[in-house]
Design a protein that fits this description.
The chain is built from 11 helices and 13 strands. It is α+β, with helices and mostly antiparallel strands and 444 residues long. The chain folds into 2 domains: 265 residues, Neurotransmitter-gated ion-channel ligand-binding domain (Acetylcholine Binding Protein, Chain: A), CATH 2.70.170; 173 residues, Neurotransmitter-gated ion-channel transmembrane domain (Methane Monooxygenase Hydroxylase, Chain G, domain 1, Up-down Bundle). Strands 1, 2, 3, 5, 6, 7 and 9 form a 7-stranded mixed beta sheet that branches. Strands 4-8-11-10 form a 4-stranded antiparallel beta sheet. β10 and β11 form a beta hairpin. α7 packs parallel to α9 and α9 packs across α10.
C-alpha cells in the first residue's frame, strides 16, 4: 500500500518532490553521510550495524540471481497485474556535432531512470532512519530501454556502477551517454535554420502490458535544467525540450516516450565566411562596369570573380546534403550570383566584340583610303617611302570619316555603348529585386 500511495504521487506530481534529492545524489557521487539520513538518534556504531542489517534484509549478501533475471511484474507493484511504471528524464548537457550531410546529431545526455522493485521495501525507522541505499547495479533488474534513433552510443565518462534504492520500493539510476542519433533536417533556411530532433525511448522486449514509460519531470523543468547543465557554447543553441507518449506496434505493442530537442544554429560564422564575401563579389562585378582602360582587363576581372564564386559553391557542396526536399536558400543565393556574374561576362564579351570589329573595319578602310590618294605623298629625302607627317595623316583621317563606311562604324560603336548602359541599368535593378526577395524569405 505504501508503494501504491507513492506511485499516485509520482504520476500526479511527476516526481517534482524528488528533484533536489536527485541532484544531491549526483553531486555527492552516491556517497551518503549518516547525518543526512535522519539517524540523529543513532550512534555511529548503531548506524553501521543498521546498514549491515539493511544489506542483509535486501538480500544483497546472497547475490540472488532472481533480482537480475526476473522482471518487475514478478515482484513489482506488490504482485498486482498492472504494468510496471518506468519513469525517465532526458537532459541534454552538450551538443557535440551536427552532421548535415549524414543527417545525424551527436549529443551528450544525462538519462535519469526510476523503476519499482516491490520486494525491496523497508521501514526506515527500523534501520536508524535510512531511507536510501546505494547498491551495485548488476545485482538488480534494470529496464531494457533502448533508443530507436540511435546510430552509436558510448558512455560519456564511464558506466555508473551503482543504483540507489529507496525505502518505498523504487530504484533510481543515472547514465551519462554520448549519443549519435539519426535526425531528419530541413536545411532550406541554412544558416538561419532551426532543427528538431527526436530521441525515442522504447523497450526492446516488453509490451505495454508489462511496462509503461513515463516522464519523471515537467517539460519546463527539463528545458531549464538542460540549459543550466549545458557544457559547451558552440555553433548551436538549445531552445527547448518537450516530450510525448506513443505506442509502437510490430509484433507486440510497445510503449514509447519521445523527447523532441529543438536547437537553433548561430549563423555568424557562415555570414562572415560565405554570405558577405559573395555579396562583395557581386558589388565588385558592378564596379567593373566602370573599368575603361582596356576591355580585356575587364574580362579578366570578371572571370576571376566567377572562379571565386565557384570556390564558394564547392565549400557549400561539402557541407550541405546531396539530396534534400527543398533547395537551401544559401545555394540559391550563390548560384544566382554566379549566374548574374556569368551573364555580365557574356555581355562584356559581346560589347567588346562589337567595339573590336568596329575598330578593325575603321582601320582597314582608313589604310585603303590613304594608300589610294593619287599615288600618296612621298618623302623628298626617300622617294620610295611615304611621308608620315601627323598633319597629313590627320587630314586623311578627317577625309575618310566623311565616307559612308566610316559612318557605319560610328553607328555600331554607339550601339555597343547603348547596350552596355542599358544592361548596366537592368543589372542593378535585377540585383536589388533579387536581394530584396531573398532577404524576406531567408533572414528572420
Amino acid at each position: 500500500m505504501r508503494q501504491q500511495k507513492y506511485l499516485r504521487h509520482f504520476s500526479l506530481l511527476n516526481m517534482m518532490h524528488l528533484h533536489w534529492l536527485m541532484f544531491l545524489l549526483i553531486l555527492l557521487g552516491w556517497v551518503f553521510d549518516a547525518q543526512v539520513t535522519g539517524a540523529q538518534n543513532c550512534s555511529d556504531v548503531e548506524y553501521a550495524e543498521a546498514r549491515k542489517r539493511l544489506f542483509e534484509h535486501l538480500g544483497m549478501d546472497k547475490n540472488d540471481a532472481q533480482k537480475t533475471r526476473m522482471w518487475p511484474l514478478t515482484f513489482g507493484n506488490n504482485g498486482s497485474s498492472n504494468p510496471a511504471d518506468i519513469y525517465m528524464d532526458l537532459y541534454v548537457t552538450s551538443i557535440i556535432k551536427v552532421d548535415e550531410k549524414a543527417q545525424s546529431l551527436t549529443t551528450q545526455v544525462q538519462i535519469r531512470t526510476a523503476w519499482p522493485i516491490g520486494d525491496l521495501e523497508w521501514e526506515e525507522k527500523k534501520f536508524c532512519g535510512i531511507d536510501k541505499f546505494a547498491a551495485p547495479k548488476d545485482m538488480f533488474w534494470t529496464p531494457d530501454i533502448g533508443i530507436v534513433e540511435s546510430l552509436k552510443t558510448d558512455f560519456g565518462t564511464k558506466d555508473f556502477p551503482n543504483v540507489v534504492l529507496f525505502d518505498i520500493g523504487f530504484t533510481f539510476s543515472v547514465d551519462i551517454l554520448s549519443l549519435t542519433t539519426a535526425c531528419k533536417m530541413d536545411l532550406h533556411m541554412f544558416p538561419f535554420d532551426s532543427q528538431s530532433c527526436k530521441i525515442t525511448f522504447q523497450s526492446t522486449s516488453y509490451s505495454t502490458q508489462d511496462i509503461t514509460i513515463n516522464p519523471l519531470s515537467e517539460k519546463d523543468f527539463i528545458t531549464v535544467t538542460s540549459q543550466e547543465l549545458f557544457l559547451a557554447q558552440g555553433e548551436w543553441d538549445l531552445i527547448n525540450i518537450t516530450y510525448s507518449s506513443s505506442t509502437y506496434t510490430e509484433w507486440i505493442e510497445m510503449d514509447q516516450l519521445i523527447y523532441q530537442i529543438d536547437i537553433k544554429r548561430r549563423p555568424l560564422l557562415y555570414v562572415i565566411n560565405i554570405i558577405v564575401p559573395v555579396f562583395f563579389f557581386l558589388i565588385l562585378d558592378v564596379a567593373s562596369f566602370f573599368i575603361v582602360k582596356n576591355g580585356y582587363d575587364k574580362l579578366g576581372f570578371k572571370v576571376t570573380l566567377l572562379l571565386s564564386i565557384s570556390v564558394m559553391l564547392l565549400i557549400l557542396s561539402n557541407t550541405l546534403p546531396s539530396t534534400a526536399d527543398r533547395i537551401p536558400l544559401i545555394g540559391v543565393y550563390c548560384c544566382a550570383v554566379f549566374c548574374l556574374i556569368g551573364i555580365s561576362l557574356l555581355e562584356t564579351i559581346f560589347v567588346n566584340y562589337l567595339k573590336a570589329e568596329t575598330a578593325n573595319r575603321g582601320s582597314v578602310e582608313t589604310t585603303s583610303t590613304v594608300s589610294g590618294q593619287d599615288g600618296g605623298v612621298r618623302d623628298p629625302q626617300n622617294p620610295g617611302a611615304t611621308a608620315t607627317d601627323p598633319q597629313i595623316i590627320s587630314m586623311c583621317n578627317a577625309a575618310t570619316q566623311r565616307k559612308p563606311q566610316q559612318k557605319t562604324c560610328l553607328y555600331w560603336t554607339r550601339v555597343a555603348r547603348t547596350i552596355d548602359v542599358t544592361f548596366f541599368v537592368l543589372y542593378i535593378i535585377t540585383i536589388i529585386f533579387f536581394l530584396s526577395v531573398l532577404g524576406k524569405l531567408w533572414i528572420p
